[in-house]
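User: Could you go from structure to sequence for me? I need the amino acid at each position, not a summary. Structure tokens:
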């Protein structure tokens, strides 16, 4: 499977070292790094993981910590069980939040996704199964998560998402792979 630059940036962004290793500068143990890569692969291969979910993975001494948001309770359960079956995983701390089950939020997800992914400037992101911009909706509040290549792509995604909504504003948490250099 070929991994694009955007996918590689997303993968590196969600492989987080444990709190202790982050504070001490100690590198992530090779076993934890391999577990994190395998867990990321499993999440990406989960057939119901889509642009309306955002799962983050951290591995610490064989324990996999899942955080983020999913749209269905069954996704939280399935992902936790799937990760627990990976050889070498000693425990799973499943802190995934289930977004509210709401017809209004579902409609808003589709509306924002259409506005973002139909924009000609962002159209390249609509190809393939793993799209880099994730749209999270909680009680009518929209948050963009994921990784884009440039500051301009982040700004356009935020503007398109905002313009698609009649009420409320969008929180743009997109990370930029190649931020512009300020002078």
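Assistant: Here is the amino acid at each position, in order:
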């Amino acid at each position: 499977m070929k991994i694009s630059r955007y996918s590689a940036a997303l993968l590196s962004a969600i492989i987080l070292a444990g709190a202790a290793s982050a504070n001490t500068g100690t590198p992530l143990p090779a076993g934890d790094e391999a577990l994190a890569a395998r867990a990321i692969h499993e999440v990406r291969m989960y057939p119901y993981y889509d642009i309306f979910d955002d799962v983050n993975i951290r591995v610490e001494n064989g324990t996999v910590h899942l955080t983020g948001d999913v749209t269905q309770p069954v996704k939280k359960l399935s992902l936790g069980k799937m990760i627990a079956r990976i050889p070498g995983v000693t425990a799973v701390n499943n802190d995934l939040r289930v977004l509210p089950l709401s017809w209004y939020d579902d409609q808003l997800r589709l509306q924002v996704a259409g506005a973002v992914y139909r924009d000609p400037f962002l159209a390249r992101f609509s190809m393939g199964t793993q799209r880099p911009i994730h749209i999270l909706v909680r009680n009518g509040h929209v948050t963009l998560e994921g990784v884009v290549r440039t500051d301009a792509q982040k700004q356009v995604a935020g503007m398109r998402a905002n313009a698609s909504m009649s009420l409320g504003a969008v929180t743009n948490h997109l990370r930029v792979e190649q931020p512009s250099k300020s002078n």
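One structural detail worth keeping in mind: Residues 1-28 have pLDDT under 50 and may be disordered.
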